[in-house]
Structure formats: C-alpha cells, structure tokens
Design goal:
This protein is an all-alpha fold and 123 residues long. The protein has one domain. It is built from four helices and no strands. The chain has helices at residues 2-31, 38-58, 62-79, 93-121. α3 (62-79) packs antiparallel against α4 (93-121). The longest helix is centred in the N-terminal third of the chain and has 30 residues, at 2-31. The protein is globular, with a radius of gyration of 16 Å. The N and C termini lie far apart (34 Å).
Amino acid sequence: MRGGRFATTTVAAYAALFVLGAVQGVIGSFQYSRIAPAGAILLCVAIGVTCLLAAWGMRSATGAFIPAAGWLIASFVLSMPSSNGSVIITNTAAGQWYLYGGTLTAALAVVVTLAARFGTQSR
C-alpha cells in the first residue's frame, strides 16, 4: 500500500509543478513589459530559479523539466496571434527578452540539473 501512496504523491507534486510553471507563464505573459526590459529579465530569472528549486526539491532532473514545460506551453500559446489578430506578447525588445530569455533560462536550469546529476553518479 505504501508504494501506491508514494506514487500518487509524486504524480501530484509533478502536476503542481507543471501548474506552477504554467501560472508563471500566464502571469509573465501579461506583466513582462511592466518595467521593460528589466521586468522581462526578472521573469526569466524567476522561471530559472523555479526550475532549479523544483529539481532540488524533487531530487531529479524531471523536477526542473516539468515547470519549464508548463512555462513554455503557456508562454508560447499566449504569444500566438488570435483569430482577430491581437497578440499578448508583442514583438518588442521586452517581448523577445521574455520569450527567448525565459526559454534559454529554463533550458539552462534543466541542463545544469542534468550535469549535476550525472556528475554525482560518476563518483
């Protein structure tokens, strides 16, 4: 019985991390230009820190990947033009910093986590 409860808790934790990343993506998509471009850069740092802390908390590289995936999906869906032509994330310097910088930061957090994970296994 203990194994089933542990698996359920783990799945719930990963689902919460995905939702956290998606919420950061939604909030960031509307707030990135608040104090441009510093706001966009701070939001990029926030998703990177979230990924690193999630990996540390879950003790796996998947912990870094899951919030990054939630952030990527939310941010890039909101960056697509809608049928009436409106765009939430505009093609400005702040918008590019937010989308590309956030993607790079999230990917870097996953790579750092994987490198640390493989570095400790080789010893």
